[in-house]
Amino acid sequence: MDTAVNIYPRQRSFSATGTYTAIIQTSTPIQDIYLANGRRSIRSISFDRPAAATLTDTRHGFWIYHLAIPLNPGESILIRFQCGYENPGFRNSGEVGEFAYNGTFFDRNPEDNWSDVEK
Fold first, then answer.
1. Which of 13, 33, 78, 114 is a Cys-bridge partner for 48, taking CB atoms 3.0 to 4.6 Å apart?
2. What are the structural domains of the chain?
């Protein structure tokens, strides 16, 4: 994983770009990639081979990408992403706690969502 993160504490926001190289560890080929975006931070995603979105559920933050050619066990795929969060201003509730004026933290690594792959 290679990631560049820009944190803006005064705006309580961030932007990031990065890449994952995932190695398939299943015993069968994989043709679909499931992406959960519960925090709605992913702005874009792309792969090093042809893939088409077969499900785009922006309301629940869930996508399925279908690879034109399946990945066989032991093969790898490069995944590029851009993500970020922009604070919309003052709210009465629902503020994202990871970004505060007096400190910023990330409590979850995006790669924790992967199973059956070696990172």
1. 78
2. 2-86+96-107 (2.60.40.1730)
